[in-house]
Amino acid sequence: MKAIWNNTVIAESDATKIIEGNHYFPPESIKKEYFVPSTSHTTCPWKGQASYYSLEVGSETNTDAAWYYPEASAMAKEIEGYVAFWKGVAIEE
After folding, report:
1. Using an 8 Å Cβ cutoff, are 48 and 73 in contact?
2. Among 6, 9, 50, 69, which residue has the least CB neighbours within 10 Å?
3. Per the structure, how many domains does the chain have?
4. What is the pTM assigned to this prediction?
């Protein structure tokens, strides 16, 4: 699977995990040069507290377009540290 934004592959892996319809990419599969840590957080009742990344590709920024669970709950340990996307990021095979 590939995560693509602004015509650029920002993550690629054959080992994504699908939870609630979202592909979660292993942390080592993201292209870190495009990811900027955000101060945003949200809480999922069963997965725990999510942290966010903004994406920077060329001169474009996509604020809080990627999220991950640095310390996932016991029910979501399989995706701890894995990164998922939204806000116009395309997921393709």
Report:
1. yes
2. 9
3. 1
4. 0.96
d(CA 48, CA 73): 5
Domain span at 7: 2-92
Per-residue exposure over 64-76, b if at least 16 CB sit within 10 Å of its own CB, e if not: bbbbbbeebeeeb
Residues contacting residue 29 through CB under 8 Å, at least 6 positions apart: 11, 12, 13, 15
Mean pLDDT of 3-27: 97
Q: How confident is the model over 35-74, as pLDDT tens digits?
A: 999 999 999 999 999 999 999 999 999 999 999 999 999 9
Kindly tell me the sign of the dihedral angle through the C-alpha atoms of 63, 35, 29, 17: negative
Other beta carbons less than 10 A from residue 22's beta carbon: 16
CB atoms within 10 A of CB 77: 13
Q: What is the CATH classification number for the domain harbouring 65? A: 2.170.150.40
